[in-house]
Amino acid sequence: MLRNLVSPAITRPLTRSKLTARAFSTSFVQRQAASTNDSGYTHILTETRDKVGLITLNRPKALNALCSDLFHEVNDALDKYDADDNIGAIVITGSQKAFAAGADIKEMKDFKYVDTYKKNFLGHWAHMVDISKPIIAAVNGYALGGGCELAMMCDIIYAGEKAVFGQPEIKLGIIPGAGGTQRLVKAVGKSKAMEMVLTGSFNLNAQEALQSGLVSKVLPAENLVDEAVKTGNAIASMSQPSVRMAKELINKSFEVSLSSGLRWERILFQSLFGTADQIEGMGAFAEKRAAKFTHK
Predict the structure, then answer these.
(1) What PROSITE patterns does this protein map onto (predicted)?
(2) Which residues are known to be catalytic?
């Protein structure tokens, strides 16, 4: 959450490098809009790049604050990509300045407990983790509060060199509500997660996020989305039954015991010997040629 907590940073005079960054960010959004003006969405842009579905959060004036309408649009786009046999992976990104600077405080500031409980507020955010295809977060700029939680719901996180991750909800008299107290611990460890959540001030820059294991790669901002799409297409070229099983098992490792996880890994491993892709993959290896998977 908390786009209001970062607003002072965007009032400083722009240096030449910042002007260049702004030009890149503007042209990036314009390119996205030009190719997706028929998507029918208000708060996001969608685009297909080969076998990858690309979702761009598009509330630049609000630093991509995550209002309910935006998240409903994200969920709808995710469902469509998940059902599309021509798509093998999904990338979610924002602008160069902000992946998402938090949930929309204006939307929630007047809520009462009964409102949040009866409406299961933020419950619809969890839909993302039910998507069967791998999701890559390409994070430039601020990923604070709900923005950090959104990134952690994805399967892989790539960060731009100036990305910033944090959970400052405590400064608003609340706590993270979409995974910040749970997924963050598993990503960076208890002590660092405690410091980030309890102080609301300890943020991770891109290199710190890489060192802590929160992200898997740090890239120049101008290359970030292209590299994420490249990885997505590499994943999409693999046997999709194997990809989906691997994703499910890795995510389940955080929820089940080691013995249970190993048992299910072995069962699903064995089941893949009933697929055409296993025959093709091992045959291609033996014949020293590239495999041509049919996802069957």
Answers:
(1) ENOYL_COA_HYDRATASE
(2) 103, 146, 149, 169
